[in-house]
Specification:
24% of the residues lie in helices and 17% in strands. By secondary structure, it is α/β, with parallel strands linked by helices. Strand 2 and strand 3 form a beta hairpin. About 6% of the residues have low confidence.
Length: 246
């Protein structure tokens, strides 16, 4: 009985330490509270506890979860490129001059895309950090450097973000872009993260599906998606997810 009490005490201490770390470490983002929570609950895609998909996700049974864990840590797939991936760099001063008219797209890796649309500079899910993780020493690592370094990304007018997972909503990238005046379009609830990261409230818009905003001659529309969200163990599906039409 005494051993069980010691084990329970250790588990409680570890859980408390993890909770404290998540509360203090800004990369985990903010919590959806107050008026933001009321707006989230008013969404037809919120069940009063969290956001839900229009088409429900299948429930995982124990056998499926076991297979996921085994495949995650012991799969035989080739998960790292066998050779260096060639990257065409963008000139350092490219983002200093106004972009010409027309349409251009440059892939930065994973979900990150840079767009030029009628002389407006946009980015999709900008993630330029080395790892998609709340800590820089662990977590999924980039296969290649982005074609432009974060410190050279100036004059990005707007950013659309699909959801708050680390490989799509990166704190360091967002903070850097925000310092240059970039405006962010995010799903409902995700503004809580931006608040915690010091992004001014007038530099972001939280949007429900089918809401649209006119922005520098473009029309930004939040559209349906099927996914989920969460940056920690306690806030799964607390913020919404979205696709975008520009």
């Amino acid at each position: 009985m005494r051993v069980l009490k010691y084990i329970a005490a250790v588990v409680a201490l570890l859980a408390g330490g993890v909770a404290l770390f998540m509360a203090l470490w800004p990369d985990f983002g903010g919590r959806v509270t107050g008026e933001r929570l009321l707006r989230a609950k008013a969404s037809p895609h919120h069940n009063g506890e969290n956001f839900v998909n229009t088409v429900p996700q299948a429930e995982n049974d124990f056998a499926q979860l076991k297979e996921i864990v085994v495949r995650q840590f012991g799969g035989t797939e080739i998960r790292t490129p066998p050779s260096a991936i060639p990257v065409v760099p963008i000139a350092v001063g490219y983002f200093d001059a106004p972009p010409p008219a027309g349409l251009r797209a440059i892939w930065f890796g994973h979900a990150t895309v840079y767009l030029e649309i009628d002389s407006v500079r946009m980015m999709v899910d900008p993630m330029l950090s080395e790892r998609a993780s709340p800590v820089g020493i662990a977590g999924p690592k980039r296969f290649h450097a982005p074609p432009a370094a974060l410190e050279n990304l100036h004059n990005i007018d707007g950013v659309v973000i699909s959801h708050d997972h680390y490989d799509h909503m990166d704190m360091a990238t967002i903070q850097s872009l925000a310092r240059h005046g970039t405006h962010f379009f995010v799903p409902l609830g995700a503004g809580a993260h931006l608040d915690r990261w010091g992004v001014p409230a007038d530099q972001y818009s939280e949007m429900e599906w089918w809401e649209h905003i006119d922005f520098k001659g473009l029309k930004i529309t939040s559209t349906p998606a099927r996914h989920y969200s969460g940056r920690g163990v306690l806030n799964q599906k607390e913020t919404f997810w979205s696709s975008w039409v520009i």
